[in-house]
Amino acid sequence: MSGGMIIADVVISGLLLLGGAFALIGSWGLAKLPSLMSRLHGPTKATTLGVGSCLIASMVYFPAYGHAWTAHELLITLFLFITAPISANLIAKAYLHGCRTEPDENAPAAEGMPVAPPHDADWATFGRDEELEEMILGETGDASPERRS
Amino acid sequence: MRRILPHPGLTAMLLLIWLLMLNSFSMGGLVLGGIFAVLVPIYTAAFWPDRPGMRWRLPLLLFLLLVVRDIIVANFHVARLILFRRNRDLRPSWLAIPLDLHSAEAITLLAGTISLTPGTVSADISTDGRHLLVHALDVADPAAEIAHIKARYERRLMEIFR
Amino acid sequence: MSMEFLVATAIGALTAGGIYLCLRARTFPVVLGLAMLSYAINLFLFAMGRLVVGRPAIYEKGATGYTDPLPQALVLTAIVISFGMTALALVLALRTFLETGTDQVDGRPDPDLLDRENRT
Amino acid sequence: MHLILLALLPFLGSAWLALLPRASRGVHAGIAVAHVVAALGLLLFVAPGVLNGIADQVRYAWVPALDLSVTLRLDALGLLFAGLILGIGLLIVVYARFYLPAGEPMGRFLSLLLLFQGAMLGIALSGNILLLLIFWELTSLSSFLLIGFRSDKAEGRQGARMALAVTGGGGLALIGGLLLLGHVAGSYELTDVLAQGDVVRASPLYPAALVLILLGCFTKSAQFPFHFWLPHAMAAPTPVSAYLHSATMVKAGVFLLARLWPVLAGTDLWFYLVATTGLITMVVGAAIALFRHDLKAILAYSTVSQLGLMTMLFGFGTPAAALAGIFHLLNHSLFKAALFMNAGIVDHEAGTRDIRLLGGLAKLMPITAALGMIAAASMAGLPPLGGFLSKEMMLEEAVHTAWLGAPWVVPLVALVGAALSVAYSLRFIVQLYLGPQRDAYPASPHDPPAGLWAPSALLVALTIAVGLFPALLTGWLITPAAADITGGTAPEFHPALWHGITPALMLSVIAVAAGGLMLWRHGPLLRGWELLRLPDAKRLFEAALERLVQWARRMSDAVHNGSLQRQLALMFLLAVVIGVEAIWYGGYAPGTRPLLPAPPVAIVAWTLLLAATAAVALVPRQRFVTLIYISVIGLVVSLAFIYLSAPDLALTQISVETVTILLLLLALNLLPKQPVQLSSNQERARNLLLGLAGGTASGLAAWAVMTRAPNDPISSYHWANSYSGGGGTNVVNVTLVDFRAFDTFGEITVLGIAALTIFALLQPAARGVSGQRLREWIADLPRSPERHPMMFAVAARLLLPLAMMVGLYIFLRGHNSPGGGFIAGLIVSIALLMQYMASGFEWADQRRQIDEHALIGFGVIIAALTGVGSLLFDAPLFTSAFGYFTLPIVGKFELATAMLFDIGVALAVIGAVMLALAELSHIAQRAQKEPAEDDGPMDVDPAKLRGLQR
Amino acid sequence: MSALIAAPVLLPAFAATISLLFRRRRRWIGAGVSIGATALLLGITVLLMIEASEGGVAAYALGAWPAPFGIVLVLDRLAAMMLVLTSALALAVSVHATLTSLDRRGWHFHPLFQFQLLGLNGAFLTGDLFNLFVFFEVLLIASYGLLLHGQGARRLTAGVQYVIVNLVGSTLFLIALGLLYGVTGTLNMADMAVRAASLPAGDHGLFRAGGMLLTAVFALKAALLPLHLWLPRAYAGAAPAVAALFAIMTKVGAYAIIRTGPLIFAGAAGRYMVPAALGTMILGFVGFLAARHLRSTAAFGLIGSTAILLTAVALFEQSAMAGALYYLPHTTIAAALLFLITDLVIRWRGMEGDAIVATPGYPGRQLLAGLFLAGGVALAGLPPLSGFIGKLLILQASLSSSWWRAIWAVILGTSLVAVIALARAGSTLFWKSDVTPPPPARRSAPNLAEAAPAGFLLAMLVLLTAGAGPVTAYMEAASRQIFDVAGYVRAVLPPPAGAGA
Amino acid sequence: MIAYALIGAMACVSAAMLLNLFRLFRGPTAADRILALDTMVINAIAFIILFGIHETTTTYFEAALLLAMVGFVGTAAYSKFLLRGDVVE
Ligand code: NA
Ligand code: NA
């Protein structure tokens, strides 16, 4: 085994372990952290450094072991980097919406609800929708919104 | 020209992606990829009516490198938070970041960057499009964090997007 | 534990769940049950080619072993067909619900519907 | 040849009449008469030969497999019967011409009558017992139509139904009987069957065959206890009653007894079944007849009685009795047809058939009265009429017959029957024609025009003549006919009015005396009879039928109760049972294939799958959450495919999964999210049990196969020929687009049809009840005001071209690496659907620039044309071709027709998926209340909000 | 074998897509293409039948891949007969649907109709079990569309059950196929027949399970007890003209049993099928009597008469099979005829539709009464129509079976029930005149031409009756072919020298 | 060395998936479950890459690519459903 190979092995192994570790930490965060908004931070690790390390390991591994160099890993990274923030954004919106409509189900977290932005605006998820306001605040009983959990 | 190459940057990107997928360089692949890279944006142009007005120059590359670096650093930081910080000691906070960017693409890129760097997640935008709602896992000083984000990312993005 | 055991029990569990759901009295769970059954069937059909790890049916000269490609082709066809069928069943269930106001399929009157009609 | 023509003539006449419904009554009658006369003439033409012992026969093979041939055979017995059918038939046609009121559709009536006549004639002429069956059932059918001719009357419909039920049912028994008979005899040709008497009677199947055949005969001939239908058949117009229900059809049963006499008669079983039935029927029918008041009912029950008499005679099993039977058959036909016509005239002229309202008609309608009284006298068995002779012969035979060793039983019962028939016949004479004239009748009775009475006059004349010169007038026919019945030489036929003082004569005298006595004391007897409260057959029958129908409804509704669960449970249960049965009977040996070790990661995946499965099954009421669990299952299955060397499957599974979830979510939006629990704990326990059984069965089956060595699968050929013969290294893909392209062609067709059906289902959903529901639909979830989140919209725009590029790549490499048209199509579809999700239906739909219907159509057509194209190169359908080409700059590349096929696949997939999902989301749009006009691709577009034109 | 063998599959594909692509143009294009293609199909299938009746079993290897590795189409007398029957029935139904404007009461009638034919014909032609599955799916999914055509609450409710039951059926089909492939390693029917004979003893149970399960799936399509529960509501729920076409669908199940039973599974299912078929017959004719609407009458009649067919099939014996084969087209056409009559009754009678209740007289009643009489006689198997001959053949052939007493009792007994039921229904529908309520405002006289397709079906029955001699001869030869496993294998598989690669 | 690292990495990913399962069942909000599923998909991608290295083949990478793309669509659809009820509007 040549020195180059040993270095490659070390690098690959390190990246693999790093990737695995971050995937685990991310999921640990997901399991452990107290509120959804906090938990959202966990998987970002898995997405970015976790998968990223594995991909880099793979990009090193194949040429190092005499196989053709592949670039698909880059593509996967690209897709993940494009989609992960949007996923997080949409999940956060869904969560915010849930907190707004069913506060009892979604116990308020440490950070509480975000304050409205200035200039008579609100966050897009909340908007200023009279119909919705009525539905949430009116609670006349007959609307009986569907329960989600 | 605009009809043939509605998004020249996109075309270039698609061609690159094609070559990456082919995993080998050949004239045949290049020609075919070129054809596809031109045809696909022509079809999808309808779904992307405006050019984002983006400059594919060095600042973009530098920005991306910066983001990658920040991702790595922040990852370790957040990993520490998750592993060693008790939940009740965390200082989660909402940040309303005032926006100077005004194109949807630019703001999305900013929001994406914020989300990708662990510790902060872009959660929403204000109805007037002037504020970005960001959640931070652990911040001591929200105002400083907002200033940091604006200085580090938004300023650079202002250069990239005219 | 062997892979065969895992696959067999997975097939069994999916079948059991699928059957259980299929026997429910409303269309939506029944459609879900069908979807679960089709997972079970796809795995089952696939398993009929026996299990092989890491030897996809990509032809290479001098390859030492390969997995049976035929069941895979069959499963592909089956997946597509069951997708079309599930979609149709689902839309039909929805459409029937819109037309009749009930999604019940056990041949008895729908308590929901009666309730609603009594109220109006 | 003559026989063919003879058999066809009535049918031809019937067809003519049916085709000319608008012709005049005269023309109708003319057509009918012409055909019957022609047939009669033809019959007379062939008669001499037949009587000289040369049975006429033609045979055309019809269904050799069944030994069913069109064999027509005319012997003396057939000649007698055919003569009656045609002769009386002719008279009836004439009578009907005058009888039917102007409003009745004469053409249809006569057409049916001739149809019936053809069927009867067929029975007489059939030389193949299966052919006879056909004609037999045809008589039931045509008589059904004739009885129900006056369909507006309930009695007509009920009588017709009852007649059909009884005689049709008997006919079905007869089918069984005759099939058995032919089976035992080894042939269905009558000649052959008749020759096999000993074989048949010795066969173990003889009792079954006999009973079945007798059921046929007895129902047709209204023998006790099947006698009840006949009187109700009298709802038919009188010509029909006269023809079918006295002279011809009801005699078919007796005729068949005679026809099969040589094969079936001569056993104790025959004697006790047939003779006893006849005996009982004779008495019962006569007794009822005595106490009826409707002329037609009296005649009908007398017919029952007389048919019993004939049956009894054939049941005796002796040649002499058979001779008497056939002689009485002739006599009865003559006087009974005359009596019915007579009753019809009375009904016609006096306006009622109720004997209690009539009487003293002799003075008012002397011709009618004379004819009626003579015919009735013959029925009573009074000398010097035909009826007397045959009754005398009957009594003679009865005297010589012992029943269960008792010599007195048969004579005594026969005497009772005879006395009763004297009584009802005399009643007809006395209470109808004689006695005092009434002050008022429902109408003013007078003799009808000659057309109505002439036919019966002819019959009465014949009755008298037969009485006076029996041997001369009938011997030539009766003797050979009797010989045909007994299958040997005929017994001597010497009928005479005076044989000396024989026991029969004494019995006859007693019968007349007793009959007279009974008529004298009719009033008290009637009161006694009414005290009996005998059940009314029609009411019983109708009630039984009603009960049968109600029972059938209860049973059918209980079985087919519309429960899907029941059906599915049965299916699953059956599948499990089949598995157990198969292993039980087929045997099982454990496999020997070495097992693959399971790494921890596989066990973890397995845990995920099992947990998600349990969750889906156990919390199905939280529908949204259930869908998330389903996604977990899909993910694990995809991983399993990857781990187990099936990348194509994984790709397909992953992409199909997504589209399925989209579909489910779209549908769930409009469905209840958390509905009321319906099934009881018990039902859930049953379902769980069935689920576990099914799961165990499928798991064990999978285990059993996976653990045994493969049995030299054909796929080794695919592996070996994929590259060299199919031009691709991805064997799965080559299998799909080449080895088994025909499957794939069917598969995309399925997908296309699914989409078209979804479209067809959802297009009209905006109308009617469903449209109403959609408009009234209220979102049952609190909804965020933002419809199109900005970041999502921006990302979707960027992903669309990327995904399309990936789709193209996956498509092109599919032949050699995992991928292919189907997956590529799904990727493109998903990318497009993402636009719908992000930017809204309206916005995306305007921009998609594809016609899904056309895509589906072109997809299927391209695939099919690729298959057909190979014919141009003289290769079989669906033969692929591939080649490696080199172009300057581009270099070497491969082209395969299979890829063209794959393009068809991809197009069909995109078309189908887009059509289905777009249509489904379109439906939801109709339930929305917000106007979709200024609906941009994103709700918050900062540039627009800041007034910066983009 | 020429490529013409694939025409019954490809022609409908082209017809379907053309009428799909031209859907926005004039209506007659769709209808014209559909009817024209169906007529052409009838011609082609007759040619194929002539070819089949002259030669032996003919095989056509698609893609030039030899059997058992590729998919083969196999044409024998049985397949040819099914093809002719299908296209003749389809012609009548498509003309009927067009004349009565059924095709305009929803989307895509003609494409779905043609796809249905594609599926049916493919199922009849294929010599490959998985390919059979695919065509089953094609014909099923097209039938879903056709069943739902026109929609309405009743149809939709019926459709849900029909679709789901058949989806579960498809699931079982795949399990059976998987087992069979897993054990025998092949999908080609002929090859499987060969391999089944030399299976190691330890595999017999699994093979039997696959075979029995497959037969059960076919029995589901054929509506055999206890798997018949789906049929009454589905067929009574469909537009009657569609149900008329569906008369052939139960026969697909029967066909598949006939095809695979003797060839591959040695008739193992027979011992269970006979009692099941007898039970079906009883339930079918009980339902026939119980029906409150003519369409239910027809649906139950279809169940009952198909059960007669299945009884004969279940004996798995050559002469009984010949009888079954003769009875098959008869029962198909008779049931279809009854459905078409139902449609005419609904169209002409007015408000009460096909409910078996008295109504005021209406124009066209006599014609309907006549047609109904003929259809009823045919379905009940009364003389003189072909059903009687078929029943005789079946009764006669069953004599050699130990089941004969039960078979006879049930067939003859249910015939009686059928007669009673028909008399009841017919006399109520066509005889009984209820003058209260008063007859509605005079309706325009019905278009008698609408009865032409029903007349065409009736003519086919007459033809089947009159030509019973040659037809039974054909069916006997077909039956011989069905039981000649060696001959089938010889025709499909290349000689051993060329086999294997 | 790589083999051990692979085993370690796979073990980590497996454990991560079990943690995801915990969150999936625990909820408490629907958004939590969506997040758990989304994370599970990311971990699956990591697993596929590790498996590819283990088998020394790139055949499975397209599956990972597709999963990256399609997992997002699923998450978006689920979230959109919670937000609006209607996934496409
Ligand atoms: Na971040
Ligand atoms: Na080919």
TrEMBL record, chain C:
Family designation: Belongs to the CPA3 antiporters (TC 2.A.63) subunit C family.
Species: Sphingomonas mucosissima
A GO CC annotation given for this chain: plasma membrane
InterPro entries linked: CPA3_antiporter_subunitC, NUOK/Mnh_C1-like
Membrane topology according to the record: Multi-pass membrane protein
Location of this chain's protein in the cell: Cell membrane
Segments passing through the bilayer: 6-23, 30-53, 73-94
Protein name from the UniProt record: Na(+)/H(+) antiporter subunit C1
Domain of life per record: Bacteria
Pfam families, alphabetized: Oxidored_q2
Keyword terms, alphabetized: Cell membrane, Membrane, Transmembrane, Transmembrane helix
Matching NCBIfam families: PRK08600.1, PRK09094.1
Gene that this polypeptide is encoded by: mnhC1
Automatic annotation (TrEMBL), chain D:
Span list, region Disordered: 928-950
Ranges of residues in domain NADH-Ubiquinone oxidoreductase (complex I) chain 5 N-terminal: 65-109
Keyword vocabulary terms for this entry: Antiport, Cell membrane, Ion transport, Membrane, Transmembrane, Transmembrane helix, Transport
GO biological process: monoatomic ion transport
Residue ranges of domain Na+/H+ antiporter MnhB subunit-related protein in the record: 792-914
GO cellular component entries: plasma membrane
Cellular localization per UniProt: Cell membrane; Membrane
Transmembrane segments: 27-55, 76-100, 112-138, 159-185, 205-230, 242-264, 270-291, 298-316, 322-346, 367-388, 408-430, 451-478, 498-520, 568-586, 598-619, 626-644, 650-668, 688-706, 748-769, 790-812, 818-841, 853-873, 893-918
Domain NADH:quinone oxidoreductase/Mrp antiporter transmembrane: 126-404
Pfam families: MbhD, MbhE, MnhB, Proton_antipo_M, Proton_antipo_N
Ranges for domain MrpA C-terminal/MbhE: 684-763
Molecular functions (GO terms): antiporter activity
Keyword DNA-binding among record annotations: no
Domain spans labelled MrpA C-terminal/MbhD: 608-673
Entry membrane topology: Multi-pass membrane protein
InterPro entries in alphabetical order: CPA3_Na-H_Antiporter_A, MnhB, MrpA_C/MbhD, MrpA_C/MbhE, ND/Mrp_TM, Proton_antipo_N
Protein name: Na(+)/H(+) antiporter subunit A
Source species: Sphingomonas mucosissima
From TrEMBL, chain E:
Short name of any one Pfam family annotated for the protein: Proton_antipo_M
GO cellular component terms listed in the entry, alphabetical order: plasma membrane
Mode of membrane association: Multi-pass membrane protein
Single Gene Ontology MF annotation: NADH dehydrogenase (ubiquinone) activity
InterPro entries per record: CPA3_Na-H_Antiporter_D (IPR050586), NADH_UbQ_OxRdtase (IPR003918), ND/Mrp_TM (IPR001750)
One Gene Ontology term from the biological process aspect of the record: ATP synthesis coupled electron transport
Subcellular location: Cell membrane; Membrane
Keyword Chloroplast: no
Keyword Nucleus in annotation: no
Family: Belongs to the CPA3 antiporters (TC 2.A.63) subunit D family.
Name of protein: Na(+)/H(+) antiporter subunit D
Naturally occurring in which organism (per UniProt): Sphingomonas mucosissima
Gene responsible for this protein: mrpD
UniProtKB/TrEMBL annotation, chain F:
Keyword annotations of the record: Antiport, Cell membrane, Ion transport, Membrane, Transmembrane, Transmembrane helix, Transport
Domain of life: Bacteria
InterPro entries: MrpF/PhaF-like
Any one GO molecular-function label of the UniProt entry: sodium:proton antiporter activity
Ion transport in keyword set: yes
Record's keyword annotation contains Transmembrane helix: yes
GO cellular component: plasma membrane
Localization per Swiss-Prot or TrEMBL: Cell membrane
Entries under NCBIfam families matching the protein: PRK06161.1 (NF004812)
Protein name, entry field: Na(+)/H(+) antiporter subunit F
UniProt organism field: Sphingomonas mucosissima
Record gene name: mrpF
